[in-house]
Amino acid sequence: MQIIDKEIKSNLSSIHLVGIEKMTPLVLHAAVLDDGANTVELRRPVVSSWVNDVVPKPLRKEMEGMVVPSALTVYDLPDLVNLLGHRLTSILPHIN
């Protein structure tokens, strides 16, 4: 594990974080909390805003494990997207 950590830390520009579908909120949080990933890509996010996509439909099974208690009093997912700035390379839309 130390060898992997050393290799990763010596070449941070090579880390590209990808979030797919229901994992995009997790990747957004991880990328904002730790700037170790040089670039971030979101593919087919199932939600783009907790306020607009989850709160009106609270029984969405795919989102039940992703809730951060009281987070909406401070931020929503679009705020995290804005914090990433140039590190966010693309958001590929979800196609129904």
Mean pLDDT: 80
Name the poorly predicted regions.
none
Helix proportion: 25-40%
- E-strand count: 3
* Main pleated sheet: 3 strands, parallel
What class do helices, strands and sheet pairing give? alpha/beta
Strand order within the widest sheet?
A: 1-2-3
Count of runs of 4 or more consecutive helical residues? 4
Measure the end-to-end span.
Answer: 40 Å
Radius of gyration: 15 Å
Molecular shape: globular
Residue fraction in strands: 15-25%
Helix and strand succession?
Answer: HEHEHHE
Which helices and strands appear, and what pairs or packs with what?
Blueprint: H1 2-10, E1 16-20, H2 24-33, E2 39-43, H3 50-54, H4 77-84, E3 88-92
Parallel strand pairs: 1-2, 2-3
Helix pairs in contact: 2-4
What does it look like?
There is one protein chain. The protein is of the alpha/beta class and 96 residues long. The protein has a domain at 37-96. The chain is built from four helices and three strands, in the order αβαβααβ. The protein has helices at 2-10, 24-33, 50-54, 77-84; strands at 16-20, 39-43, 88-92. A three-stranded parallel beta sheet has the order 1-2-3, with helices on one face. The longest helix has 10 residues, at 24-33. The N and C termini lie far apart (40 Å). The model has no long low-confidence stretch (mean pLDDT 80).
